[in-house]
Amino acid sequence: MLDFTILSENFDMFLEGFLNTLYVSFLALIGSFVLGTILAIFRIAPIKPLNWIGTIYVEFIRNIPLLIILFFIFTGLPVFEIRLSGFVAGTLALMIYTAAFIAEAIRAGILSVPKGQMEAARSSGLTYTQAMWHVILPQAIKIVIPPLGNQFINLVKNSSILTIVAAGELMYQGDLISSRTFVTFDVYIFVAVFYLIITLPLSLGVNRLEKRLAQSN
Amino acid sequence: MIKFENVHKHFGDFHVLNNINLEINKGEVVVIIGPSGSGKSTLLRCMNQLETISEGRLEVNGVVLSDKKVNINEFRKNVGMVFQHFNLYPNKTVLENIMLAPVKVLKKSKEEAKKTALYYLEKVGILEKADAYPSQLSGGQQQRVAIARGLAMNPQIMLFDEPTSALDPEMIGEVLDVMKALALEGMTMVVVTHEMGFAREVADRIIFIDKGQILEDADPTEFYNQPKDERARLFLSRILNH
Ligand SMILES: Nc1ncnc2c1ncn2[C@@H]1O[C@H](COP(=O)(O)OP(=O)(O)OP(=O)(O)O)[C@@H](O)[C@H]1O
Ligand SMILES: [Mg+2]
């Protein structure tokens, strides 16, 4: 049977890990959403150099493992005299990595809005940015919400690799407890439950939002 | 008001507009007809720079569009456009559709923009739909909202690209009536349409275009009775006998 004393005796550490994972995820989520939206607009805007920057970023970042991005930031940047804690380096890596996927989701959403919408908005005198903001993005967001929700769930799960830079998050605390108590199975079951506490509501929330948006059409 | 001088337009290797010379005066109603793919929409879309010309000189409402440094958003305030597929914003109500540009571009207050919007909704005969969403309207009603949306900017010129060709036959009349009323008020209008009744009744001139060239620029009665160009004659007999 599951050994609940592992949970109760190490509850402080589990809790600290849980809160750190929440914190990392929240920061990376905000960061990757902002960066991803900017990158998506870069890729679509009628300005060639911006298209290139957006494309290069997305194609490079989403085609290399998150672990390598993390290593580069944590061990590569100190070469340039930039030293970051595991927590900061990990959050940055997650943000940079997830932004590439979010950019693609948002771009697909924007492209799915019929071309006539931009034309109608522009021919009434709205600037490109105004048309994007008031006409295109509100329509794109409906299409983007399900894939975006999935990216956020991935982000939470991916944060577990931050354990290798000792970011203090859930997986790291689990590793600590496990190496200290020599219990593996039970510890990681509890770790998994804590992850579910974050990801399940996210998943259900996305489903519900998706249904609501579908009805409003 | 609109002046094309030796205008050419290419899409890659494709020569879509070939040496266009055309002058449209204030208050004129000009109908453009021609076979599918002849460049009618492209010609119209050059007039508000949804397409840019490749060569020549184009002046609209006192602005030389072929110049590099035009303030396009400033220019477009004065030129309304109505599309074949209406292109209303589906996530906004009728009122919000009409108010968006007056508020964002003309910087009108919400109250003022709403007053104007209601005025034009009444004019196109669907005041009661002010709070409906586009998906709740018939095609004819949607197109009338689109016209009201254009008019709410108080433009000098209105462009129409096949405004009735996506409509069920029984709704064509209500849209044409709105356009006729607008023409009678003296609006400068350029209309791509195959509605020959409208052209004959309302248009000051008919432009026939084929393969990117203007082949005929005539008074409607003259055009219907005796098109000078062979292709125009053929085209006319085809649309009149369908
Ligand atoms: N963005 C574009 N890129 C390449 N070719 C285009 C583009 N837009 C239009 N064309 C081509 O230019 C030609 C003229 O198009 P246009 O839409 O002006 O014709 P039209 O006379 O309005 O035809 P229709 O009656 O079918 O609306 C067509 O052959 C079309 O395929
Ligand atoms: Mg056309």
Short description:
The complex is a heterodimer of chains A (about 220) and B (about 240). With about 220 residues, chain A is mainly alpha-helical. Helix content of chain A is about 80%, strand content about 0%.
Description:
The complex is a heterodimer of chains A (217) and B (242). Chain A is mainly alpha-helical and 217 residues long. Chain A is 81% helix and 0% strand. Chain B is α/β, with parallel strands linked by helices and 242 residues long. Chain B is 37% helix and 25% strand. Chain B is built from nine helices and ten strands. In chain B, the strands form two sheets. A six-stranded mixed sheet of chain B has the order 6-7-8-3-9-10, sandwiched between helices. In chain B, strands 2-1-4-5 form a four-stranded antiparallel sheet, with no helix packed on it. In chain B, a hairpin with a 2-residue loop joins β4 (55-60) and β5. In chain B, α4 (110-123) crosses α5 (139-151). At the A-B interface, α6 and α7 of A face α2, β6, α3 and α5 of B.
Largest sheet of chain B, if any? 6 strands, mixed
Overall shape of chain B: it is globular
Q: Bound compounds, please?
A: adenosine-5'-triphosphate, magnesium ion
Fraction of residues in helix of chain A = over 70%
| Spatial order of the strands forming the largest sheet of chain B | 6-7-8-3-9-10
CATH topology of chain A: MetI-like fold
Order of helices and strands of chain B: EEEHEEHEHHHEHEHEEHH
SSE order of chain A, one letter for each helix or strand: HHHHHHHHH
Task: Calculate Rg of chain A over CA atoms.
Answer: 21 Å
Quickly count the helices of chain A. 9
- What is the count of β-strands of chain A? 0
CATH class of chain A: Mainly Alpha
Shape of chain A: flat
Q: Work out the number of β strands of chain B.
A: 10
Q: Enumerate how many helices of chain B there are, as a single number.
A: 9
List the topology elements.
The complex is a heterodimer of chains A (217) and B (242).
Chain A: H1 4-9, H2 11-44, H3 48-62, H4 66-76, H5 86-111, H6 115-123, H7 128-158, H8 170-181, H9 185-215
Helix pairs in contact in A: 2-3, 2-5, 2-8, 3-5, 4-5, 5-7, 6-7, 7-9, 8-9
Chain B: E1 2-11, E2 14-24, E3 29-33, H1 40-46, E4 55-60, E5 63-64, H2 72-76, E6 79-82, H3 94-104, H4 110-123, H5 139-151, E7 157-161, H6 169-184, E8 188-192, H7 196-202, E9 205-210, E10 213-218, H8 220-225, H9 230-240
Parallel strand pairs in B: 3-8, 3-9, 6-7, 7-8
Antiparallel strand pairs in B: 1-2, 1-4, 4-5, 9-10
The structure holds adenosine-5'-triphosphate and magnesium ion.
